[in-house]
Amino acid sequence: MHYDPIKDRFGALVEGRPWAMRLFFSILQVVFLRAWYVRRALRAAAERSGGRLRMLDAGTGFGQFSWWMARRYPGVRIHAVDIKNDYLEWARVLFERYGLDARTTFGVDDLTRLGAVGPYDLILSVDVMEHIEEDETVFSHFHRVLRPGGTVIINTPSDQGGSDVGADGDASFIGEHVRDGYGQDELREKLERAGFTVERIDYTYGPWGSLAWKLLIKYPMLLLSKTFAAVILLPFYYIPVLPLATVFNFLDVSTPNHTGTGLIAVARRP
Predict the structure, then answer these.
(1) Tens digit of pLDDT per residue, the chain (270 long)?
(2) What backbone phi and psi angles, to 5 degrees, belong to 131?
(3) Which of 68, 73, 106, 149 is most solvent-facing, going by the fewest CB within 10 Å?
(4) d(Cα 78, Cα 101) in Å, to the nearest integer?
(5) CB-based contacts of 227-233 (< 8 A; 24+ apart in sequence)
């Protein structure tokens, strides 16, 4: 199954409507477990710097994490890049509407030929590397534009069934991926070859998170892949499901996962 066309349809629904995009971001931050882990890593990085840093949001998508950082930390300056200009244009409208454009810039950029020059204190890459064959080239670019002592955060599917790699046919979410996912050792070795010191690599989407993902993301997306008109049914679906699945997400981030279908890595440039 291809996830991006459905994501694009949601983007089109909120395009040019800052209030709707803001609501959309709030929903994403709740239903996607990866956002729980990424926000925790971002908070730690921001607190180490006293809330003042330059950040590269590498593969920003709709810009939801740049939005979260810009609103929470007035001392943060962000450059958000993506290969899709329409995503960036949607984000620009939102940031301009709420006066965050003075601290946030946007640019079309290919991470394998990264044009951004930095130096940055923090680089964030969320669910991007599984789409890029030349991942070590990207890591080398990240090392080049990150200042010494700076932090890079990588969130990606693992090789333990990320994006439902074991599912049959249309149930799988890996149609747009160049790799099924990373092993912990593989990701560590690639980051170290690029010159980083890896602080931690944690499994995400353990048993609780995987169950929440099926309830909150997989089943609705499979329905929407059949007909996007089903979007009108989603509020009725989420009313009973969301409270329970939110508890599952909380349990996932609150307990160590010995395995999981996702990974989040935090590394530093020495």
Answers:
(1) 566 677 777 777 777 788 888 898 999 999 999 999 999 999 999 999 998 999 999 999 999 999 999 999 999 999 999 999 988 998 999 999 999 999 999 999 999 999 998 899 999 999 999 999 999 999 999 999 999 999 999 999 999 976 665 555 555 555 667 788 899 999 999 999 999 999 999 999 999 999 999 999 999 988 888 888 888 999 999 999 999 999 999 999 999 999 999 999 999 999
(2) -100, -5
(3) 149
(4) 10
(5) 228/6, 228/9, 231/13
Nearest Cα neighbor of 255 from 193, 184, 203 is 203
Its pTM stands at: 0.93
Q: Which residues, 6 or more positions from 148, have their beta carbon under 8 angstroms from its beta carbon?
A: 269, 270
164 token code pair: 């439902």
CA distance 187 to 198: 10
124, β-bridge pairs: 57, 153
Query: Maximum Cα–Cα distance for the chain, whole Å?
Result: 51
180-187: Cβ within 8 A, 24+ apart: 181/130, 181/156, 181/157, 181/261, 181/263, 182/129, 182/130, 182/156, 182/157, 182/158, 182/263, 183/158, 183/159, 184/158, 184/263, 186/159, 187/154, 187/156, 187/263, 187/265
Q: Which amino acid is at 99?
A: G
* CA–CA distance, 235 with 16 (Å, rounded to integer): 22
Q: What CA–CA distance (Å, rounded) separates 164 from 255? A: 22
